[in-house]
Write the structure tokens for this entry.
Amino acid sequence: MKWKISDEDTYLFHQGTHYQSYKLMGAKKMTIDGQTGYRFTVWAPNAKAVSVTGDFNDWVHGSHPLEKLTDMGLWAGFFPDVEDGVTYKFSLEHPDGRRLLKADPYAQYAEVRPNTASVTWADPEYAWSDEDWYKQKKSTSSYSSPVNIYEVHLGTWRKKPGEVEDDALYSYRELAETLIPYVKELGYTHIELLPITEHPFDLSWGYQITGYFAPTSRFGSPEDFKYFVDQCHRHKIGVLLDWVPGHFCRDEHGLRQFDGEACYEYQDINKADKPSWGTLTFDFGRPEVQSFLISNAVYWLREFHLDGIRVDAVASMMYLNFDRPEDKPKLYNTYGGEENLEATAFLRKLNQTVFAYEPDVLMMAEDSSDVPLVTAPVHDGGLGFNYKWNMGWMNDMLKYMEYDPLHRKHHHNHLTFSFMYTYSENFILPLSHDEVVHGKKSLLNKMPGDQWQQFANFRLLLAYQMAHPGKKLLFMGGELAMYSEWKDKEDLDWHLLDYPLHRGAHEYIRVLNHMYKNSPALYELDHDPAGFQWIDADNQDQSITSFIRRGKKPGDEYIIICNFTPVVHYDFKIGVPEPGVYKEVFNTDYEHFGGSNQINDGDHFTFDEKWHGFDQHMKIMVPPLAVSIFQIKSTHNDEEESQ
């Protein structure tokens, strides 16, 4: 066992089944024959020679050579003169004489950009304190629990006032003291981080990666990030990571032509190239790439205790010609189709492996395709995710909300179509960063009408999202009702909280989130048709929809009325399932939210007259551009028993 590398390790790595290859590869501190130093292991199948160069040898090529362990390109060497915290890269010599200087693909730490070297990291044992969080996860199911996600870009959530740009970022530890209490106060259950894997260019938002195993050093060390996650768990907040296995950036120090030839990417440049994104596609059929990517998912979930992964751009992985420019040749698989068969097989293998290691995590597909069974188990022919972003709902709802309310009746299908497929997958309803950047306008600024109507529409949209079956996600800044779209160089418009309408919107989000979290009818049966029933889906002339959301317990139900016009309706008849007394428990038009305070006070008794297919109805006032939620207070049977 040379340098503590076994034949089993090398075999599994080259088979694509070494699912903890991060324990084998990269720079690992260890003691061998009484000497402590670092073992370096790298995969470079096309290299003629490989050495490690860095601060410890004045960046001299060849002074710390690695030995080739396998014919398939695994190289390793142990050096007792390498200490903690020194920068290094691999120096790779190609047979044609070219020399490449590359960052370690498995590095756990990297220099702060714009520097590009890897850093030796001893990976000290972190003393986790989230046992209670893990017990809670094991005792509950996410399917029947509230999941309300606050999507965050750490670099622009908040910056330090008065600091120069390079010093303006809060660290992971500082974010633990600022972001976590904020998220908890607002009532979110999870934080989802835009990619924090190491990346050279801030404006890629982390989606073009060079260091898949390194939490970006912009905000601190790997241990600092573990502290952040640990503190989230202590405050009962889950942490999710946006993960990008579909493609990687072309930067010279990264994975592109790692050893002088296509290595991590497809050898066919037409298949490797993503010209519209300026990136390269992973070769999903190559076993060593599978070991790399699947190990990476396992690494974040196990070593950093993350609660889930949102897999970015799944459709771009599954289709060979996704977003392919017209002037580029079309690609086809061996059967003549446009599906990327290796990518589909990889996704299934990924999900099977992840759930074998961590059965209680969320594996979420950001998938814009109409491929069926994305959230079905692999053994049932599915891709094996347990959640999928509902991009169709998001696109339809935002398009619908941008129409003038007077014209919404002509587009009523945008409002109701999602219910045709709501139970075909386990969905998350996203209002994400992609919808509030690059000229798409902020959520508030998408809304039509004068200022009052814009804010009313904003509240209406978010309440409709909360009432619709499916888990929830909102991008940061949405809770401030920002007029400007996300400025990916600056922090959020916190000054808006000095203005009454924005302060009211912020309070509205807080109350709405806590109501959701405390209302089993809004989440327990998200993925079960028994949790939803239409009252009236077809009132397009008035642009009003009404439905019932139910929890698991008998009688745990909400009557929900959504008015998508600014017209107030009095003595409006709503069919209800049970005779008795109903009470309004929530109204988005409350005055302290910034609304007109058209609310339903007091008790509402039912009338024994058929309406909307029910044997009885109640009469209510329907507020303008608003959602009203009613709950039964007592049934006629309750009243008879009390007498």
User: Anything to note?
Assistant: Residues 500-517 form the longest helix (18 residues). The CA atoms of residues 56 and 267 lie 35 Å apart.
